Amino acid sequence: MSTNKSLLLRGIGGSAKCGSAPSPNGGRLKIAVCFTAHQIFATLGVIFAAPWVLVLLGEIGLHVGLQGSSLPLQWLLYGTPFFPGYVLLAIALGWLLSGWLRHRSMLWVWALPLLALCVGVVRYPQIPRPSYITMIAVLGVYPWQRFVPVPPGRLGLVAALSHFLGWGHGVQPYDQVLVVVPFYTAAAYSIGAVLARRFFRADPFFKSLRQLRVWRLALALGLPWFLIRGIQLWEHAAFSLPFYRTIFGIQIILGGLLAQSALATLVFGVTIALVGPRFGVTRFFLSGKEQRRPQNRRSDW
Questions:
Q1: Contact present, 212 and 272 (Cβ < 8 Å)
Q2: In sequence order, what are the beta bridge partners of 147?
């Protein structure tokens, strides 16, 4: 009886240890949550953040004496059907977050957007006409895009691929913006994750990056940046453009401030990871020990 009791207590204690193998249902839930989070971030997150990030870089360029920097920014956003601004940002974030988080689900976020693109090509030339509510929602994600519903021209597979992936529109077709850009950003996000795992593995840098105290970074830099930039944008944009004084305009400004604050925090965190614990300021933001990785390597967070 005592032997059975000790075995029971040992089993209970072992199941409560941190790092023990999770139950199958719990592991599937973590995989689903992780994949969903990366899917949203790789598509909507990158798409919304890219214009604000490029605007911030353009302002920095003007401060350092680079004149006419707004024209390259517009070309990077929507000057080509390849949307290089969105793609470059997605690759950089995929590489950085893959080395930091080591989530294998990042490698598969391209699958659903590719399926949506295939459905759009198969259904061509049946182009959905956007409703007013849909147009407002899309404008919230693409506040700087010039897009309109473009009627189909020729029929066939070549015409469909040209409509979604080709040049010559002058503006982005509505369905191209909704279908192609998420596929490009998700594929670039996965490519960045592959680069971090296979080709450009900066293990010492990523190890230092995993030691960052994210909440200290957010409170010490992200929050002040959000408040200061918010005051500047409100004084500059809201008073000159009445649209930004509406509820919808305020939502766009808040989203842009969040994107720029996250970028500033990320750049500062990368700088601290590169410098390492050499100074008191950097040691304040480093924990001194790497975040533990789950022992069950087959489970994907």
A1: yes
A2: 172
Mean pLDDT for all residues in the chain: 76
Model confidence pLDDT, tens digit, residues 218-253: 999 999 999 998 888 887 776 777 777 778 778 878
Q: Residues, the chain, total?
A: 301
User: What confidence tens digit (pLDDT) does each residue in 256-277 have?
Assistant: 888 889 888 998 999 999 898 8
Q: Are the CB atoms for 187 and 113 separated by under 8 Å? A: yes
* pTM listed for this prediction: 0.77
Provide the b/e sequence for 76-105 (b: ≥16 CB within 10 Å). bbbeebebbbbbbbbbbbbbbbbbbbbbbb
Angstrom distance (rounded) from CA 248 to CA 230: 16
The Cα 89–Cα 86 span in angstroms is 5
CA dist 80 and 290 (Å) reads 42
Closest C-alpha among 287, 263, 266, 283 to residue 275? 283
**Which of 74, 16, 43 is closest to 177 using CA atoms?**
43
